[in-house]
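Mods, move this if it's the wrong board.
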Amino acid sequence: MVRLADHQRPKIRPAVLVPEMGSQNRPTLSTTDCSLSSFMNVQNILKVPKCHGGLDGKGLSRGLPVGIGQVYPHSDMVFDPPRQKRRLLRWLLPVALVVAALVGLAAQGAGSDAREEIDYLNELSAQTTDLAIGGDALRDVVSRLSRIERPELETVIENLEEDIVRGLEFVEEEPPSDDLLAVRALYRVALEQWDVGVSGFGEGILAAADEPGSTTPTDTIANSIVALRSGDELFVQVRSEIDRPDVPDPINPLRVVVLSPASGEAIALSLAYTEAARSPTNGIALRPGLAASMIVADPEWQLNPENQVVMPATESVVFSVVVTNVGNLISEEEPITLTLIGPGDPAELSSTIPPLEPGAQTTIIFEALPVTPDEIYEVTAELKVVGVDMDFEDNFLQVMFRVNSE
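Not the wrong board. Structure tokens:
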């Protein structure tokens, strides 16, 4: 290695930071040369990479790293951010804002779609809850077929049919997203099967009671059980579709819906239900029935100590007949007669019984008839039922009485 004498070594002047012309307190570097060693010393002081390139005609250093500045080797070095970077920042900021806005809108849209899907599934959940309750009610009345009344069965069937119609109207609407198309399709088919099964089951049970000698109701009931089970199985698939990861969960989970009345062979169940529907201990069969329940007299009669019916002394009496519909369907308009037999010729009056709801009563008031004190009379009320009646024996009432002398 060759060692240089002190007078042969290049002199390095210390870099001095001075204000740049026209700048506001920006640091500048002043030196008298731009030799390699000078720049190395500047790098050590300012901790900047080595410069590359040379000087232009004005003594400006080229090749300094972007963002370091310009160097004036014989006067000042000014550190000034390059225009290219400032121009890039001016472009990047608006683009970033636009991208952020688009992302926000996309997120907002996605959130709205999710809410619509959840609302759709919540409505489906509410419907299936009603259907599940209806299925429980159906199994309850079926377990008591030999003891229930016709209106109870009809009410359960009608409520289920209304719930199914509500569901069929719901599936006519488009779901909020394609992810729910399979849910809607399966739910629609399940509802259609339930519709066939529920209406057929109700019709079959009532026909079995109303037509004791017919075998058609048994087949109708068996086919209805098959349809109900088909709907139950399809609804299991509906629940599986909703459990997929890409389908949001409803707020209230879907209940299990089972409308089939029981497990077992459909034909065996149908035969059992037919027999129960025809049981004489229930009120399922159509049983039209009017009954003459009571004869009322004015003045009022009463029993004497000998258990004889007596009437206070009077010269006339007004009779009324209370009629009751003891059947399970609305009665038709029917005639009624009242006959009074005593001294002299019999007196006969007639009137009409209006249609009555099951269990309803009406009172038919006849005109006054003359009577003689201290005489015995017999009054008879008879319903002249023209149509079908389950018991004609209760259409007739007769009372024998005596009119007191005082």
